[in-house]
């Protein structure tokens, strides 16, 4: 029993990192869903892809940290990493992405009004 208590901290941190990657996966898929104005079927496909990706990340985290051996603190670390990412970094990244998208939209509008682009794309 002592063997499993020695590396709990590092296992928890590894699983927290993989949980944060799961949060990043959600952020990417939600951005894609918003960008393409996904309907019912594309939303379902994105949700299935998220579920499969999250399961793959959890399994990869288990294999990396405990050689595939499940412990409750592994699940706790994964959920904690996901929650910390979604409450912290995801908010900052999504706000920055919105500003970048607005800036790109304004740039495209400015470029499309020039005479050269009107001549090229006539």
What does this structure look like?
88% of the residues lie in helices and 0% in strands. It is built from five helices and no strands. The chain has helices spanning 2-6, 8-35, 40-66, 72-112, 115-120. Helix 2 packs antiparallel against helix 3 (40-66) and helix 2 (8-35) runs parallel beside helix 4. The longest helix has 41 residues, at 72-112. The protein is elongated, with a radius of gyration of 21 Å. The model has no long low-confidence stretch (mean pLDDT 83).
What is the number of strand segments? 0
Portion of residues in beta strands equals under 5%
Secondary-structure-based class equals mainly alpha
Q: Which segments are poorly predicted (pLDDT under 50) over 5 or more consecutive residues?
A: none
Can you summarize the main beta sheet?
none
**Helix and strand succession?**
HHHHH
Query: Distance between termini?
Result: 75 Å
Query: What is the share of helical residues?
Result: over 70%
Treating each run of at least 4 consecutive H or I residues as one helix, how many helices? 5
Oligomer type: single chain
Gross morphology is elongated
Measured on Cα atoms, how large is the radius of gyration? 21 Å
């Amino acid at each position: 029993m002592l063997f499993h208590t020695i590396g709990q901290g590092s296992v928890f941190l590894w699983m927290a990192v993989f949980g944060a990657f799961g949060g990043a996966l959600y952020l990417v898929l939600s951005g894609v869903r918003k960008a393409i104005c996904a309907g019912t079927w594309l939303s379902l496909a994105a949700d299935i892809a998220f579920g499969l990706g999250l399961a793959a990340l959890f399994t990869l985290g288990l294999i990396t940290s405990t050689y595939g051996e499940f412990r409750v603190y592994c699940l706790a670390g994964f959920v904690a990493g996901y929650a910390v990412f979604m409450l912290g970094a995801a908010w900052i990244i999504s706000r920055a992405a919105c500003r970048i998208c607005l800036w790109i939209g304004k740039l495209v509008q400015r470029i499309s009004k020039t005479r050269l682009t009107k001549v090229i794309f006539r």
